[in-house]
Structures are given as structure tokens and as C-alpha cells.
Amino acid sequence: MGLPLLSTTLCLILMLSQSLPSSSLLQETNFIDQNPTAYEILGDYDLPKGLLPQGVVGYSLDTTTGKFSAIWNGTCSFSLEGSYKLSYKSTINGYISKGRLSRLEGVSVKLFFIWVDIIDVKRNGDDLEFSVGIAGADFSVDNFEVCPQCGCGLNCDGETRKVSKIRSNLFVSSS
User: Fold this and answer.
1) Which architecture, in CATH terms, is 34-144?
2) What's the rounded Cα separation, in Å, for the pair 11 and 111?
């Protein structure tokens, strides 16, 4: 007679435990809700959110090394003012520090007929310096207040937003 009572008690405990929310699940959910977005991470490092196109579905950040990754559900490309073509792989990687993204992988710009990788973005006051290695271009930080959208960039609602250049030549050596 003791065995049926024990098995009935165990069944009741199991049924009740499955119908009640787990406290560890609640803690995990609250923790996830408190995580900043990839765009907020950029802001924490004094970089504008518009460096990343809309649609980031995940990211990773190692605060010890600064290793940073952003993930989309696919590749992302768009044009700005019809002359600057940008392409983001489904995952971009690099290192983030105050005012800088370095050793970038997965972001390219089309120059004339070839695609070159943007490997470094550095904030210098109100300007952002983009480097493709031995050459670079500067743009006002104001150009990156809004996140571009994959496919249409900053011209998705029919309203064209101008990109203002600081240097007269795109990706001209700064040395």
C-alpha cells in the first residue's frame, strides 16, 4: 500500500512543478531582457548606432578582450546616395574599444568596380574615420544617427537622406 501512495505523490509533484514557472527560467528571462542591444553597445563605446544596419538578431561581446560580433539573418547590402555601396556578411567580427572598431571582418565597400574590406572605424571628435588599409575616408558622425536598412539604405520611405563627406576624395590615403 505504501508504493501506490508514493507513486501518486510523485506524479502530483511532477504535474505541479511543470505547471508552475521555474524560478531559474524567470531569472534567465529577466537577465535577457536587461541585456543591451548591439546598437546600445556601440553607444556605450561612443560610436553611433548607424554603423550597423537594422535587423541585428544577435551579438556577442567579450568585455575582457573587446571581441565583438553582430549577426543578421542573412547578408545585407545597400547603397547610400547611389554612390556608396556597402555589404555586410551575415556575421561581422572585430574588436571594440572606446571610439573604435578595429580588425573588422565582414564589412565591404564598393570602390569603382572592386569590393574592399573596411577594416577600421575610428571616432575622432565629430568625425568617423573609415580605413580600408592604406587608404581611408572621413564622415561626420551625424551621418550615422539612423541605422540603414538592408536593400534600401536610408532611402526606404522615399525620403533621401544625404551623406556629407568631410574629405573631397573617397578613400584617399591619409599619409
Assistant:
1) Roll (2.30)
2) 68
